[in-house]
Design goal:
mainly beta, 19 strands, 5-stranded antiparallel β-sheet, about 210 residues
């Protein structure tokens, strides 16, 4: 949802478009004013991630900006030496189920054997990823760890797969990780059918803007 707490003379409108972009538009008959600009601030720490400036006589404008990760953003209009005239809080949330399947390579198997952190389920562009250290999976928005869960499965072999599924839920994203062990033979030539191991669902809550 969107919450508008500012001066509606600027007709500020902010909506989510695409996977994780903000569409911003505004208009004001008297122009935006001296040193007019629009700032987009990210959730968590309120840092400005995008700023667009205008000449004082400009009466309307619009732009689309891809945010760095999901969460609640603040968009506001400032002019006349930094005074805030209009601002909106806008949620940018995952809209549809996303799935990432990864097949273990020799280098990945070695990382697990050495006890190193192994990135999994990275979805390019949405600013969210999961990482595994031992049996613990941690889910991140941006640079903040949002949730963690555990999954226990056999030592991976080359060709085994790990699938991370992100599902939108109220207030966050549910993550499920599934490990599929392909059929294999041991060093004595005995055949095994492999198996499937699935983590319990875990929900990572969205980061909200500090108020």
């Amino acid at each position: 949802m969107s919450i508008n707490n500012g001066n509606t003379d600027f007709n500020l409108s902010v909506s989510q478009t695409g996977e994780k972009s903000l569409k911003v538009s505004w208009s004001r008959s008297g122009g935006i004013g001296y040193n007019g600009r629009i700032d987009v601030q990210r959730p968590g720490d309120g840092q400005i991630v995008y700023s667009k400036t205008y000449n004082q006589d400009v009466k309307k404008g619009s732009f689309t900006f891809e945010v760095p990760y999901f969460g609640e953003y603040k968009v506001h209009i400032k002019s006349n030496n930094g005074q805030t005239y209009d601002f909106i809080y806008r949620n940018v949330f995952l809209k549809a189920v996303k799935e990432k399947k990864y097949t273990y390579k020799a280098a990945d198997v070695k990382k697990v054997e050495d006890g190193d952190m192994f990135l999994l389920g990275v979805i390019t562009g949405i600013g969210m990823y999961a990482a595994m250290l031992g049996s613990v999976i941690s889910i991140y928005f941006g640079t903040r760890q949002a949730a963690s869960t555990k999954i226990t499965f056999p030592k991976p072999r080359v060709g085994d797969t790990l699938t991370t599924t992100y599902t939108p839920v109220i207030g966050g994203v549910q993550t499920v990780v599934k490990f599929v062990q392909k059929p294999y033979k041991d060093k004595f030539g005995n055949s095994f059918s492999g198996g499937t191991y699935t983590s319990a669902p875990t929900v990572a809550k969205y980061i909200t803007y500090p108020k």
